[in-house]
Amino acid sequence: MPELIPVLRKDDIKKKVGAIARQISRDYHNSEPVIIGVLKGSFIFLSDLIRQLSIPVTIEFVGISSYGSGSSSTGSIQLTYEIETDLANKDVLIVEDIVDTGLTLVHLIEYLKSKGPKSVRFCTFIDKRERREVEAEIDYACHVVDTGFIVGYGLDYAGKYRNLPDLYHLKF
Ligand code: IMP
Ligand code: MG
Q: Which residues of the chain have pLDDT under 50?
């Protein structure tokens, strides 16, 4: 069995998410952004984040799959669920669980920009830096790690561990 090494407890997560929510609420105080959650990993972070915002928002989802069931990016990114709403002239905020190589981020921004929004920004729960392959512009990050495979709080390994309230390093 792989070992779970604690990274953040749920109280720390709550504080960090609250801080990012206040920053987002300030930055978008004159706007009503469309928040786009990236399925599946972002669903817990997204649901905590939006309940701490003090601005009006609408919520959409996009499905993307880059992994199969392994622990490193295959580089081929597939759209598994298409955005259904009109984004023309909207302020768009993408919400992701983790940025690793950055390939998903770049692909997503390019895809959403093609829909003619007024602005696109990127928010991630975890910014994992060691394996970055492309220049990735992250506007909001709750927590930075250098390395390791992270699970819990929505993040999975082969579909497992998403339901853990705390965040862990998975040691194989
Ligand atoms: P990227 O395209 O390499 O930046 O990978 C981004 C996606 O890979 C994320 O949306 C996650 O779904 C997945 N991923 C990357 N690193 C981890 C990790 O440490 N734990 C869980 N999922 C990860
Ligand atoms: Mg993901």
A: none
